[in-house]
């Protein structure tokens, strides 16, 4: 079997995985395998990264990577069965949507590597992902991002949380981080329902508008 046919088969198998975080990881492995000979290393970001870190508690619609959209990338995506429609690469048969919204991570953002088999897949660092969500929550007033941050905070180590606070201060979102940490503690201590927690998130956003 030709390498391109083998990658297509692996892509089909990955698309059938029902657990979304494992599916995203498997798809990322296939993409990295296809791009490795060209020394291209996509970095998983956005909602797809939230999906991975929360072990599928959050579900993302499409899959986002940071990587320059070069002619080589377009050729590889076409070989895998994707059709380019504007900024999106769509696989009509497997119902996959992949986007490369940025060429590079923002300054001071970092990535981690996950080893799956013998392939290393890159994903935006958890602290930087939370900072990105905090910015959207504070400035974009998106309640759902508050819910995502509450899920992501559970995945941080103590050292990671200290690093997050430093980054949050630099990005002027430390106030929102502190409010969400307090809300998280309240949810756990008082066993608040999801509806009540969402109402409190909306209240935080409303007070931030004033």
Question: Which descriptors would you attach to this protein?
Answer:
210 residues; alpha/beta; Beta Polymerase, domain 2; 2 domains; 7-stranded mixed beta sheet
Structural features, described:
It is a single chain. The protein is α/β, with parallel strands linked by helices. It folds into two domains: 3-124, Beta Polymerase, domain 2 (2-Layer Sandwich); 127-209. It has helices spanning 3-15, 20-35, 46-53, 71-79, 126-139, 143-153, 158-170, 174-190, 194-209; strands at residues 43-45, 63-66, 83-85, 88-91, 96-102, 111-116, 119-124. It has a seven-stranded mixed beta sheet with strand order 3-4-5-2-1-7-6. The longest helix has 17 residues, at 174-190. The termini are far apart.
Write the layout of secondary structure elements.
Blueprint: H1 3-15, H2 20-35, E1 43-45, H3 46-53, E2 63-66, H4 71-79, E3 83-85, E4 88-91, E5 96-102, E6 111-116, E7 119-124, H5 126-139, H6 143-153, H7 158-170, H8 174-190, H9 194-209
Parallel strand pairs: 1-7, 2-5
Antiparallel strand pairs: 1-2, 3-4, 4-5, 6-7
Helix pairs in contact: 1-2, 2-3, 5-6, 5-7, 6-9, 8-9
